[in-house]
Structure formats: C-alpha cells, structure tokens
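Please, structure for the following, as tokens.
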Amino acid sequence: MSWNPFKRSKPPQPESGKKSRRSPLFKLKSTQSRGLFSASEYDHNNSGWDATAVPVGQVIDRKLLSLVARSREQVSNNDYARGFVREVRKNVWGSKGIQLQVRGKDPSGSLDAVANEAIERAYKKWCRRQNCSVDGRLDYVRLGRVAINMAVGSGEAFIRIVEGDAAGPWGFSLQVIDSLRVPVGVNDTRLRNGNVIRHGIEMTPYGRPVSYLVETKAGVLADPFKHNGKEFERVPAEDMLHIYDMEQAEQFRGLPWTHSSLTRMKNVAGFEEASVVNARAGASKTMVLKADPDVYEADEDEEEPEFDLEPNSVVVLPPGYEPVDYSPDFPSAETASFIKSQLRGTASGWGVAYNSIANDLEGVNFSSIRQGKLDERDGWKDLQEWFIEAFCRPIYERWLEHSLLSGKIVLPTGNALNASRYEKFLDVEWQPRRWEWVDPLKEEKAISEAQSNGRKSPSEAIRESGRDPDAVWQAYADDIAAMRAKGIPDNFIFRILGLSAIAPSDGEEDGQEE
C-alpha cells in the first residue's frame, strides 16, 4: 500500500533489520566556522577577489597609463567628473589663489612692515602672466588652476622652474609640463653613478629624486638621455616640482583622484544613455510589424518594409503583416534612485558631499547641510595645506632667492633689499580661501560669543574668514583717521564701527565732564 504524503497519517515504518533508503528533499551543506581574518579565506563567494599582493610600483608600471587615459576621458566627457575637478579647484585654490603674507621680523621681534610690504608688492608684480609663465600665457592664479586640474585628472603635475634669459622679463618663470612627457615605462635598476631610475625619475637608492626625464625632440639638448630610440632631457630635481598626493610608501608617481570611481561613472553614463535611447523609442511610438506565416512568407532576399510615421497619418500594412505593440516602459521610476545611489558612492570616494557633486538640494535642511559642509571643508583644508607645501612654498622660496640676488625687490627709498636677509623673509603665512556660512547671522553670533568667552581671538576669527588681520586693522586705522580728518566726533565714529559699548559718552570727550 502506497503512502499518500497529503494525508495526516504516519508514513510506513521500515521493517526491522532494514535501513530506510529515504533521503531528504534538500541537503544543506554545513558551513564551517571562520577564524580570524576571514577575508583572507577562499571560497566560491570570493573566487573572483584578487588575493595577490603587488607592490604599488608594479601597479603603476602596468596600469597608470590606462588609468590616466580613462580619467582624462571622463573629466572631458562626464559632467560629474568635470564638476569634481571644478569643486577641487575652487575650494582648494579659490578665485584669487592662496595669498602670501610675509612675516619677517626685526631683532626686536616686531614685524618689518616696510620690507614685508616691498616683498609682497614685488611678488604680486611677478605673478603677472608675462613674468610668471615661461611662455607668457598664464598668470600665477591661472597656472595654479592648471596644476590642480592636472593633479586631479592625471594624478600629478610637473612644474619646471626656469631661470635666466629664457625665463622672460623677470629672469624667473614656470613651465607647466604634461605628466605623460615624463615616461612611466623607463626603468633602470642601476646607473653608473649608483642611482636608479623608476618611472622616468632618477633617484638615489633611498628614493630621493635627483633628476626627471622629460621627453623632447631629438637634437635640441646638450646632455640628452636616450632610451629605446627616444631622447629625454634631464631636469635637475631642484628645478622641478612634482605635485602629487602620495598615498602609499614608495609611491613615486601620482594616481588620478578619480581612479576608484571610474567604473561607476562609466556605468552611470552608459545607464543614462540607454535610458535616453529607450525613452526616445517610447516617445516615438515606433511601429513593429510581425509577419503571419500562415498568410505570408517572405523570400530570403526580400527586404523588410519600412514606414515613415507622420502625425495624423494612416498606414496601410502589406498583406501578411500585422502590427505589434511596442511601447518600452522606460525610463522607470527606479532610474533616478539608481543614479542617486551611484553618485552617493562616487561622492564618498571623492571625499565631497553628494549635494555638491549632484547639484541636488532636495530634502536638505539647515542642520544636515551644515554638518555636511563642515565635514567637506575639513577635507578641503587638508588639501590646501598639501598644495601649499607642494606648490606655493617651494616656488616662493626660489623666487625670493632669485629676486633678492637680482635686486628686483625695491624698498620705498629706491634701494634694493639686501640679499643677506633671505632667511629672515622665509617666515611667511599662506592665507587660503575660506567659505561663507549657510546661515551667516547664526554663525556670526556664535563667533561673537566665542570671542566674549575668550575661546577665540579676533585675529583668529578674521583668518577663518579668509582675510589678513593686519590688513583689517590697517583698514580700521585708515577709516578712523579719514573720519577724524573730516571732523566726525569720536563717539559717532565708534558707533559707526559698531563699538558703541566702549565709546566715550557725550560728556566725557577730551577727558572732561559737563
């Protein structure tokens, strides 16, 4: 008698002495417990996960050129990648660049205001494009913008320092070099002088750069370096600024800042393109014809019928064909959420707020955008300090040395500043750009309370706003002197400046009471 599994009766029991051959419908494989560092283990879930450790130098040799090519393509064609470059440029460098403030002091410890101002005035004059760029095309601010564009899109920027007659009117200028002219694939384990070449950079065995190889035209160099039929110029390391963000030990070339998101950006671009194609097809109401084999059978060499659909037109189908409804339901409601999720991941990899990259302020309130901006600005400040040390400071120090020795810095008396005071004027401060707050009234109130409680000095608050405290104090002094010269009473001047709380009363002017 067979057992019906759908009845509530017990299944027949096996006879004594015989084993049941019945097996369960599903057999689950037991999972072994994982030990420490389970990510290092191999199973079918992570079979495609690369577990071979490779030094960063080998990664650069094999993959840098393709990463640079794809990054440059995305920066040129992808709106979000292009927007990221713009965000970095405007937040790290700003519209006016990172401002120089010389802080040279006399033996007494007070600032040498006359000499400091003379240096700043000469530096501003050199920053003009006819002096700053060796080709006379870029002023200092624009040259800094190009350097940041290259660092983000290509991973690195090379700036050559040129001195002498070829450097233009000032005798000191800068040359921007495409990073691909410094060859990644030129490597030598050992040179005759004991140095090595890695990724086109000659360096000591400890990794200190000695010179850079720059590809150039044959026959134009006095001391060329030849490799595989190509000729390179040796540029001494002291004359070359290699600007890149070093992330790993023994990393001698920079990686594009977009490298972790290139695949994601390419997928988003492809998804958007497919969405547009499907949306256009749906909006066009394309007619699809289906041949009925029982009525009509087309010859092999017979072409399919084509129709030009026009508004308010009637189409007569050929015999044996019938229309098929073709209305692609795309893009769907999930399109926007998919793109948003992809851009959130991209923004995290770039270290910027999603709202900045996607230009999306939907659902944003004051608290959330303020917290997001604070986190983002900490990252910008970190990059500002990096760019100051990689770009601003070395250029200023070489410029100062050249300008002092050539007598380019002139005091108000007409005399050139003494070159022996070079070390004194290396004491400088760099003022990068700062940002307006989301709600300025609340932030100003918070700053005022911090000053009244002694937690923040006035000069600190001024620097946070992106201005020079000395310039602000001087502006106050100039305004007060100008108003006094016009006969405006001091108590009224203080009220104009918002200092009515400490202004003398009407009866206390000149130390006299009524």
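Residues 73 and 153 are 9 Å apart (CA to CA). The first helix runs from residue 56 to 77.
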